[in-house]
Amino acid sequence: MSAPVRIFVPRETAAVSVGADDVAAQLASRAAARGRAIELVRNGSWGMSWLEPLVEVVVAGERIAYGPVTVADVDSLLDADLLAGGAHPLRLGPTTEIPYLETQDRWTFRRCGLIEPLSLEQYRANGGFAGLGKAFALGPAAVVKELTASGLRGRGGAGFPTGIKWKTVADAPGPQKYIACNADEGDSGTFSDRMLMEGDPFTLVEGLLIAGFAVGANRGYVYLRSEYPLARAIFTQALVVARNGGWLGRNIQGSGFDFDIDLHLGAGSYVCGEETAMLESLEGKAGVIRYKPPLPALQGLFGKPTVVNNVITLASVPEILARGGAAYAALGTGRSRGTLAFQLAGNIRRGGLVEKAFGLSLRELIEQWGGGTHSGRPIRAVQIGGPLGAYFPDELLDTPLDYEAFAALSGLIGHGGIVVFDDSVDMARQARFAMEFCALESCGKCTPCRIGSVRGVEVIDRIVADENREANLALLQELCDTMVNGSLCAMGGMTPFPVRSALKYFPSDFLRRSAAVRKVAGAKR
Amino acid sequence: MSRTYDAAGAAQIIDAFGARPELLVQILHAFVERYSYINEEAVRQIAATLNLSRADVHGVVSFYHDFRTAPPGKRIVKICQAEACQSMGCRELTEHAQRKLGVPLNSTTADGEVTLEPVYCLGNCACSPAVMIDDRVYGRVDAARFDELLRKSAERPQ
Q1: A393 upstream amide cis, omega within 30 of 0
Q2: What tens digit of pLDDT does each residue of B69-90 get?
Q3: Taking a C-beta distance cutoff of 8 angstroms, is the pair A272, A262 a contact?
Q4: What pLDDT, on a 0 to 100 scale, did the predictor assign at position A3?
Q5: Residues 14 through 73 of chain A touching chain B, CB cutoff 8 Å
Q6: How far apart are CA A54 and CA A155, in angstroms?
Q7: What is the CA A398 to chain-centroid distance, rounded?
Q8: Is residue A522's pLDDT more than 50?
Q9: A414 — contact with chain B (CB < 8 Å)?
């Protein structure tokens, strides 16, 4: 009897959402029925979501990919000698040679898809904990310096330099400090936090450890949204495995450094992704935002100095330390250094995660990786950066992916989510939705956001209904000014971005429509 | 399987969190997991045990979408309404679901079988439109697949 053939089928939300669990079960039962021994491994996803469920077979030490595989394909795959890497219409060749993946700059996601997510052994064998080892050798101050040199900026959306934030917390007086990791990934079009926590959770654990070591904190909190049950299950398990392996708790690996992590669940509130609302929620309260200052770096969780970083920011740290800040800073453009895990979403042919150095154009990403729209119709609008991000028309798609270039166009890269719409989109409806969503999710603390969003929906309805059109257009602009300038946080302050971009680039969509179209828009109320 | 509220069981949950007020959001999650919703007695008991006012607890319960205050149907079906899913037809899918179930969003079928709700992003944006039935996420859901998923979910033991 020969050794069992190793087969990888991801256990990751996107893959499972299109049948990966069923495919795994079918592979196991059909292989057994044929008397073939297989060893089924549930890895994370490589991020090629359009190929999910992606099945990989290890043949002569190389992973050969097939996808997208359905339950109905399993017999024909086994007939085609899948277990020896046989030819089949779904065969994609060696996984790492698939152009979508081969052309990426994988730093933060270097192990995602490659390893078994909960295997500490595989994590270490593939470079895991090298960054932490380096941190222990360098000492806290030098770690902060290395981070500053890398040019890493907050990947949650705000783009604040991570090294400066860490230095502020490190220099803050007081014995008790915290690391609060924002895993409340609420922006539509984004899933990189989830993919990392499901596919390579120890990287986040390591990032938290390094952050704690650098700033002098011994406790970390991960605030995970409740819409991610699989990430919750995997990350919960990862914390147990890390603790049992001596990577959390007292005197970690004999370093004298103590650190532990609590996982807290959000409860379906978008605004809790705003850092101060998240801190309130972590304290057990309603997610109502706080005035700033004081900065969370000085008075954050429970009033103590706190590093608040997004999952991807923290997960980028281990590899930056392992390879050196200068190597990371060598990638990118302008003040946008290193890589970002872009997420191609919505109406796109090849949706998924693409980690690339900053500087390529939006069009390159959408066309070369994304392959255009899923529907095959022309692209009309692209929303970048979640529900607070601007809608770009075709003529702006050559904008380089760089924080400052987007800011100059009143847009944002945010958390790197890119949502493509084809020419069937009604941009007045999208603008209305931006206001509707703000009304629904506003924490209610400040008036421009709480009331402005409700009035925004009404004014857009009047414009579309052709009531006092010019006066209402002027009123909408004024309302947007009030929200931008008068809101306390980005929720109200940036909701006007999608609204104004829709008005600016797609004005014809706001012209009087047939009664039928209005009725549909009205029914959403 | 959710149970009917009982003061002793509820006390156990609060105890398991050390009756710490800063864990209120996590405690409320545990209540929803066990009892499927948070009733008025639970609010009173939590407030008394954590030394908070009922208004404090009510404020937190009513702030978050997850903390329902009425019993849901046997199955909870959530359809993503956010932008990525909009670009792939979630509005049409939602209309189909409402017709199929005979109820609007945010309501439960008359037979108490299904609660239909909106959700704003399930993080499955490369496989839109996305639907969640209880704790399972499904991608690329069109009308036919929705009907099939609904049928299959009814066959699963609750």
Answers
A1: no
A2: 999 999 999 999 999 999 999 9
A3: no
A4: 86
A5: 14, 16-18, 49-50, 52
A6: 28
A7: 23
A8: no
A9: no
